[in-house]
Amino acid sequence: MSTITSGILDKERIIAGPGFNRWLVPPAALAIHLCIGMAYGFSVFWLPLSKALGIKDAIKCGPEVGFFAQLFTTTCDWQISTLGWMYTLFFVLLGSSAAIWGGWLERAGPRKAGVVAACCWCGGMLLSALGVYTHQFWLMILGSGVIGGIGLGLGYISPVSTLIKWFPDRRGMATGMAIMGFGGGAMIGSPLAADLMKHFASPTSVGVMQTFVVMALIYFVFMMAGAFGYRVPETGWKPAGWTPPPAAANAMITQRHVHVSKVWGIPQFWLIWMVLCMNVSAGIGVIGMASPMLQEVFGGSLIGVAKKFGELDKAQLAAIASVAAGFTALLSLFNIGGRFFWASLSDKLGRKLTYVVFFVLGGVLYFSVPGSAAAGSIVLFVSAFCIILSMYGGGFATVPAYLADLFGTQMVGAIHGRLLTAWATAGVLGPVVVNYMREYQLGLGLPREQVYNQTMYILTGMLVVGLICNLMVKPLADKWFMTDEELAVEKRLAHEKAAASVVVRGVNGGADSVSPALVAMAWAAVGIPLAWGVYRTLQSVAKFFA
Questions:
Q1: For a Cys staple, 307 with which of 226, 311, 342, 440, CB 3.0–4.6 Å?
Q2: DSSP 3-state of 481
C-alpha cells in the first residue's frame, strides 16, 4: 500500500477535532453492520444454488459423490446440506478472526479495519460469484466462507471500542445501535437478494452469480463510506456536561484498563464467556427450528383446520409454511429491536442485572413453552419466543458494554474479539442440541407436537448455567490492570495523541465541525434501507396475523 493511502487510513488521521458531532459515528458503524449482517440471510441463496445446473429441477449427485467430491464436481448440483456449511463457517470465522486480529484493530484504528473488512466481505462475494459461474463450491467456501468470514469478524468488532469511547455516558445504547445493524442486515439483504435473483433469472441461469456481483458492489460502497466516516476521540475527551462517576460509586465499572494479552487467565472473562455462550446457544438453536417447530406443534390449527401436521395435504402444508414464514419474520423484528432496547436499558439497570433478567425470564419462558403448546395457545407460544429472541439479540448488544465496565475501554474491542469465540462455539452447540434432540425424540416414536418438549427443558438448563456464571462475576483484582507505565506504552502503540491538533491542523485547520444537515444525511443513508427492510418484513408478518 502506498504511503498516501496508508496515511489516509492511519489512526492519527482520524482523531476528531473540535466541533465534531459524535452522532456521525453510529451511522458509520451501521453502514458496515447492515452489510455484513447479510450473513444471517445467506440461506435465501440455498434453494436456487441447489439447482444452479438443472435450473428448474436439481441434477442430483449419485451416492458416490460425497461432501469433498461436491467441492469440485461440475456434473451435478450441490445439496442444501452441503451449502449450509458456509453458514457454519461464517460464525466460526467471525469468532476466530475477531479473536486473532482484535489486538491489531485497537492499534490500527477502526478505519483501517473497516476498509479491510469491506475488501474481505465484498471480495469474498465476488469470488463466490466466480465459484457459481464455474460451479466450483470450493471457491464459494474460500470466498464467502473463509475470506468473507474474516471480513465479518473485523467488521463486527471495528466500531465497538470507538463507540464506547464516544458514548461513555451511554455505552449500552451506543453498541446496541451498531449491533442492531448486524441483526437488521438480513432484513434488508434477503428481500434485496430475492428481487435481484428474480430479475437476473433466465432459462440458463438462476441469477445467483449476478446477484452476488451486484450486492458485492453495493456493499463495498456502503462499507467504505462507513469506514471513512469513523473518527476516534482525542485522549481524555468526554461529552459536554458529563463527569465520570467516582470509582467507589459503582465497583462494577472500572476507570482502569486490562491488556488483552491477560484476559485468557482472568476468571471473570471466562464467566462472561459462559454467559454469552449459554445465552446464544439457547437462542440460536431456536432460530433455526422456529418455522418447523410452529408447524409441527400446531399443525392445521394455524389455518383453522382440526388436523395434526402429519394429516395435512400438500396445499395445507404450503399454507401453514407461509404462516410460519411470517412467524420467522416476526422473530427477526424482535431480535433486532431487542438489541437496541435491552442494551439501552442496561445503561439504567447495569449489565449484570440485565443478564439476570435474560436468564430468569428466559428460563421461565422456555419452561412454559411445552405447557402453552399442550394447551394449544398459539398466542402464548408466539409471545414467549418473541421475548426470548429479543433477549437473544439483547445479549449480543449488551456484552461489549459489560466488558468495558469490567476491563476498561483501552482494549475493549480486542477483548470483545476474544469473547466472540463463545459465539463460534454456540453456533455449533445450539443447533446440534436442538436438531439431534428432535431426531432422537422422533426416533423414540413421540408425536411431532411433543418432540420439542425435552429440548425446551435442556435450553432452560443452559440458561440456569448462564445465570450461575453471571452471578459469580465480581470486580477484577488490582493485579489484572495495566500500570500507568504499561498504559502509556499501549497508548503510544495505539497512536493516541494528547489532542487532535497534532495531526488535524495540517488537514482541516484544526477544526472538525459538522453541520446538522450532514448528520441527518448520514442517518438517512442507513435509516432508509433499514426502514425498507422493516417494511418488507412486516409484509411477511402480515401473513402470520392473517
A1: 311
A2: strand
240-255: pLDDT as tens digits:
888 887 765 567 888 8
pLDDT band at 6 (very low <50, low <70, confident <90, very high): low
The rounded distance, in Å, linking the Cα atoms of 180 and 188 is 13
| Beta pairing partners, 481 | 258
Three-class DSSP category at 258: strand
Q: Is 501 exposed, middle or buried (0-12, 13-18, 19+ CB in 10 A)?
A: middle
Check pLDDT > 90 for residue 307.
no
The closest of 190, 224, 195, 188 to 210, measured between CA atoms, is 195
Contact between residue 387 and residue 368 where contact means Cβ atoms under 8 Å apart: no
Three-state DSSP at 50 gives coil
DSSP 259: -
Find where cell 412454559 sits.
368
Task: Give the whole-angstrom CA distance, residue 223 versus residue 125.
Answer: 14
State the sign of the Cα–Cα–Cα–Cα dihedral 406, 408, 413, 415. Answer: negative
DSSP-assigned letter for residue 412:
H
- Rounded distance, CA 406 to CA 194, Å? 43
3-state helix/strand/coil string of 185-252: HHHHHHHHHHHHHHHHCECCECCHHHHHHHHHHHHHHHHHHHHHHCCECCCCCCCCCCCCCCHHHCCC
Can you say whether residue 236 is alpha, beta or left, with left for phi > 0 and alpha for psi between -120 and 50 degrees? left
Mean pLDDT, rounded, for 286-309: 82
- Domain ranges (residues) in the chain: 21-236+513-538, 285-473
Amino acid residing at 206: V
Residues in the chain: 546
Q: Which residue has the higher pLDDT, 251 or 530?
A: 530
Report d(CA 154, CA 118) in Å as an integer.
9
Taking CA atoms, 301 is separated from 292, 323, 430, 543, in Å, by 14, 11, 28, 15
**pTM of the model as a whole:** 0.88
Q: 285-473: CATH homologous superfamily?
A: MFS general substrate transporter like domains (1.20.1250.20)
Distance CA 125, CA 121 (A): 6
Identify the CATH class of 21-236+513-538. mainly alpha
What nine digits make up the cell of 54? 438443472
Beta bridge partners of 232: 15
- Least confident range of 205-219, 241-255, 349-363, 369-383: 241-255
User: CB burial class (10 A; 0-12, 13-18, 19+) of residue 506?
Assistant: exposed
